[in-house]
Specification:
Distance between the termini: 40 Å
Bound molecules: iron/sulfur cluster
Helix content: 25-40%
CATH topology: NADH Oxidase
Strand content: 15-25%
Largest sheet: 4 strands, antiparallel
CATH class: Alpha Beta
Radius of gyration: 17 Å
Strand order of the largest sheet: 1-2-8-3
Order of helices and strands: HEEHEEEHEEEHHH
């Protein structure tokens, strides 16, 4: 099967399984000087494609926050679960074509497992950066991926593969969403003071709030208030 045919088969299968958006990034993007995180090449040295899969999260999960944190957290985990199932099917499909594939976690931690480094809270790679590079969105002040159709109300996962998939054209979107400079709502609402007007995010403050104050439930206020 050619590169184009395999790419199309993957996209058709993913969309048939109800992902809302899909993109493919060339992992060379992680060599860009602006990228400061861990690289997927450390996980899969011969990675040739980063396949990003995403679903929109129902708006009804955000409306009741902060009271509805249990429902919000459960809805996020449901989105994670469905992405995990879809990604697994696609990884199996890719391997049937003679390549290797592995799935990047959606969450930094989940049900007691730590997928990200406990100290730095850094994951093995930024799915959001790959998604930006693939043209799926850009970053908000809340450091979340802002997509065209769902704003920051999304869940994403990624597949690393040595399959040479057809990557998207270079992105045209600015790195930071242009609406942020006249908004700043996420900075004002954050109960942990984790989002700074200068563009910094203090992940440890967000994590401490969710794990120590909320007992592991997700907060989501910076997503709820986002007008995008
Ligand atoms: S999830 Fe809550 S604590 Fe974390 S950055 Fe957003 S508003 Fe702040
Ligand atoms: S709430 Fe406003 S400032 Fe924050 S990410 Fe959304 S648009 Fe940007």
């Amino acid at each position: 099967m050619t590169e184009i045919m395999l790419t199309q088969k993957i996209k058709d299968t993913a969309l048939g399984m109800n992902v809302d958006f899909i993109g493919i990034a060339d992992p060379v993007c992680f060599q860009n000087p602006e990228y400061m995180g861990n690289k997927p090449q450390d996980v899969m040295p011969d990675v040739r494609s980063v396949l990003i899969l995403g679903v929109g999260v129902p708006r009804g999960a955000f409306d009741p926050l902060p009271e509805g944190r249990a429902e919000y957290t459960n809805t996020l985990m449901a989105a994670t679960a469905i992405l995990r199932i879809i990604a697994f099917q696609l990884a199996k499909m890719i391997e049937k074509e003679g390549y290797r594939a592995t799935i990047v976690p959606t969450e930094g931690s989940e049900f007691g497992y730590w997928y990200a480094d406990r100290e730095t809270l850094k994951a093995n790679m930024s799915i959001k950066y790959a998604a930006h590079y693939a043209g799926l969105g850009n970053f908000g002040m809340n450091h979340l991926l802002i997509t065209k159709d769902f704003g920051p109300r999304v869940r994403v996962t990624a597949i690393l593969t040595d399959a040479p998939l057809e990557t998207e054209e270079n992105i045209k979107l600015p790195f930071i969403n242009e609406k942020c400079s006249s908004c700043m709502k996420c900075i004002e609402v954050c109960p942990a003071g984790a989002i700074s007007p200068d563009g910094e995010i203090y992940r440890e403050k967000c994590a401490q709030y969710m794990f120590n104050v909320l007992g592991g439930l997700r907060c989501g206020l910076c997503v709820k208030v986002c007008p995008m």
